[in-house]
Design goal:
This protein is mostly helical. Helices cover about 55% and strands about 5% of the residues. The two termini are about 25 Å apart.
Length: about 110
């Protein structure tokens, strides 16, 4: 995560430019708050939001890993249409194996 994601999260739709990749290069282009603009976030706010977004990204990594390995759901639907319990169970077993391989943080599946 970087400062651009944090700024978009903190002040959606705001106007700014960034020279480099640090807060020091941030130029706030919004009109003043009293003219309907959004206030420039402080460095501390931006740093905290970068940390929060990074933590959220890391916490949800298991979802991205699982998504790549889950079997095609059409296999399950095909099993339903054909009434093939073995095919449906094979799909369920494959999904459970992926969940086991990439557990959700905190132990909840």
């Amino acid at each position: 995560m970087d400062i651009t994601y944090a700024l978009q999260s903190l002040r959606p739709g705001s106007e700014w430019s960034l020279n480099g990749d640090t807060y020091d290069g941030l130029q706030w282009l919004e009109p003043p708050v009293w003219e309907g603009g959004q206030s420039k976030p402080t460095k501390e706010e931006v740093d905290a939001e970068v940390a929060r977004l990074k933590q959220e990204w890391e916490y949800t990594e298991y979802q991205r890993l699982r998504e790549k390995e889950y079997p095609d759901f059409r296999d399950y639907l095909d099993g339903i249409v054909k009434g093939d319990q073995g095919q449906m169970q094979a799909y369920i077993n494959a999904c459970l194996a992926v969940k086991e391989k990439y557990p959700k943080p905190g132990g909840v599946k």
